[in-house]
Amino acid sequence: MATDWAADIKKYAPDADDAVIAKLLSTYRLALGNKDSAYVAASDPAELETVRKNFLKGKLGLTDDDAALDAAIKDVTTLMKADRLKSRATVYYLLAAKFGKLDVFK
Fold it and tell me: Which domains does the chain have, with CATH numbers?
C-alpha cells in the first residue's frame, strides 16, 4: 500500500511535527500496512470502541469518561467527513493533538 500517511496528516494539521508523525507511523506500521486496519470505519460502533479503548485509554492513558472520549472521536471524524476512508494515522494524530498528548510519540 503506497499511501503517504504524513501528507494525509498534514492535510488536517499543516504544522504537524514531523518527528511525532514518524514515531506514530513507526508505532502503527503493521496496522497501516493492512488495508482493513489502515482506516477507521467511523460508522462502525465496534471500531469506535476500539479507538477509545486501545488508543485513547490504552496508548494515551486518558481517564476521561467514555462520553467525552466518544465526543472527541466524533469531532475528529466529522472534521474528516470529506474523506470516505479515514486514515488511522490521521485520526490518531488529531486525537493525540486534541488531548495534548503528542509527546507520547516523542
Answer: 5-32+41-105 (1.10.238.120)
